[in-house]
Specification:
This protein is an all-alpha fold and 476 residues long. The protein has a domain of 52 residues. Helix 5 packs parallel to helix 7, helix 7 runs antiparallel to helix 8 and helix 9 packs parallel to helix 11. It is elongated, with a radius of gyration of 39 Å.
């Protein structure tokens, strides 16, 4: 297409870039004029040929490869830069022109030259823009995979961060260093897990498993970020590869706490099966049970795994049961009660209250009735219950609510019904004591063939005095 000739030179300077008729023709896409100029008889100086080469590269098209090849033969500098100091090889790799990139490299361009603004190389820019052909050309030309940009990112990290799987596989095949961390301490594995790329995560783990517990400057490990984003398959892969399930970040959150916070049930199940600490506490004083207390399925998993329902959480030192009493999720409340959570003692650092007080003050009927029933069945202080339903221990604001008044009215009715049968209940208690030896008072007797109300009432410690004064004998 082009004959050996020399190029006419009528140059002028615009924006610190040398222009000549060839540059103008390239800029205006006037390929007819370009062909004419390339065969004229006058020689082309290297500076002018380099300026024209820059214009051709900025057009971002391999269609100009014949033109760039001729300009390189006219002594255009393959290591030239634009006005911002970016090398031609970087501009070409960024645009994806693999043919022109090969020409530059054959002409002596440095594949490892860095851009002034961010220290990125042609390889990192090709990876960033997913130009696989350019990546392969640069790797074949000896481009280094360990050079980092201003943010500490190698081409491998750039590929993982932008989820460029093909480029990452090419780099891994050239033995790229997987242990490098960017300026924030994040590795290739961190970025692969953060982007949710299961295949790449497994490939990295098979290649370099020693970075599985590497943490960034905030203490976030690959397992923590995968759990936070709910990538169940990646969490499973990391656990299977030996990730530490109890490592925590800078605020003390373990993977289990994060799963409970985010509501990722499948991740939580996997972590429990991996024997993660179900009672781990972060720097805010909260544990997994606290963060999933309103989710019945997750709560059940943690309780079955042995989570302590009586652990005090947050700076106020309340139990999960106390927090749950103020939320209208009675099925979760019942789970904690069935797990033998303590419900009688006041909890709280600033304003200690029993869970039943909290439930009533919030006007939650089902929670209040459920806790009241447990108080009766498990032998609570009836004198305290009587005082409580009188309203003396309720704050004035709570007593103004209709729902609170209705709950109190219901409790008063229940207590009155129980107190109407003291003699019969005393008889039942005395008979049970005599049958069991008569040496102690029965605190809790389950599965007695008695009416429900009498069974509950029989267990009230306050009736001991009535029972001791009774003249009922064993023959009665």
């Amino acid at each position: 297409m082009f004959r050996n000739g020399v190029i006419n030179v009528h140059k002028f300077r615009i924006y610190n870039t040398w222009f000549c008729p060839i540059s103008e023709a390239i800029e205006q896409n006037d390929y007819h004029r370009l062909n004419e100029l390339l065969v004229e008889s006058r020689p082309c100086k290297p500076k002018e040929a380099t300026a024209a080469l820059q214009r051709a590269i900025l057009k971002k098209s391999d269609e100009l490869s014949d033109c760039t090849q001729l300009l390189l033969s006219k002594n255009a500098d393959p290591n030239g830069t634009d006005g911002k100091g970016t090398a031609f090889v970087i501009l070409t790799a960024e645009s994806g022109c693999s043919t022109i990139l090969k020409q530059l490299l054959r002409a002596g361009a440095d594949p490892n030259k860095c851009r002034v603004s961010d220290n990125s190389t042609a390889l990192s820019r090709a990876v960033w823009n997913n130009h696989i052909a350019c990546v392969d050309v640069l790797l074949a030309a000896g481009a280094k995979t360990e050079i980092v940009d201003s943010q500490g990112r190698t081409p491998l990290i750039a590929a993982a961060q932008n989820d460029k799987t093909e480029a990452l596989v090419s780099l891994l095949n050239h033995k790229g260093n997987l242990q490098v961390q960017d300026t924030k301490g994040r590795t290739v594995l961190y970025w692969a897990t953060r982007m949710g790329n299961t295949a790449v995560t497994k490939l990295i783990l098979d290649t370099e498993s020693s970075i599985i517990n590497s943490a960034d400057i905030r203490g976030t490990t690959p397992l923590l970020i995968a759990t936070e984003r709910g990538f169940t398959k990646i969490v499973d892969a990391l656990i299977s590869a030996g990730a530490d399930v109890d490592m925590c970040n800078d605020v003390g959150d373990t993977a289990l706490i994060i799963a409970a916070k985010a509501g990722h049930k499948e991740c939580l199940q996997l972590l429990v099966e991996a024997e993660a600490d179900v009672d781990a506490v972060n720097k805010n004083g909260t544990n997994p049970l606290f963060h999933c207390m309103t989710d019945a399925s997750s709560l059940s998993v943690l309780l079955e795994a042995g989570a302590d329902p009586d652990m005090k959480v947050t700076s106020d030192e309340r139990t999960v049961l106390a927090f749950l009493a103020a939320r209208d999720v009675p099925e979760c409340l019942q789970m904690l009660l069935e797990a033998n959570a303590q419900f009688e003692d006041p909890v709280g650092k600033q304003d200690p209250k029993r869970p039943i007080q909290i439930a009533v003050e919030h006007g939650i009927s089902l929670n209040s009735k459920l806790l009241f029933t447990y108080h009766i069945c498990m032998g609570c202080d009836v004198r305290w219950l009587s005082t409580f339903v009188s309203g003396r221990s309720l704050n004035a604001q709570a007593q103004q609510h209709r729902s609170v008044r209705e709950i109190i009215r219901w409790m008063k009715g229940q207590i009155s019904a129980f107190l109407e049968v003291p003699k019969l209940s005393t008889l039942c208690r005395r008979c049970v004591r005599l049958a069991m030896g008569g040496e102690f008072y029965v605190q809790k007797v389950e599965y007695l063939p008695l009416p429900s109300a009498l069974q509950r009432f029989m267990m009230m410690p306050e009736l001991r005095e009535v029972s001791s004064q009774s003249q009922v004998g064993p023959n009665h």
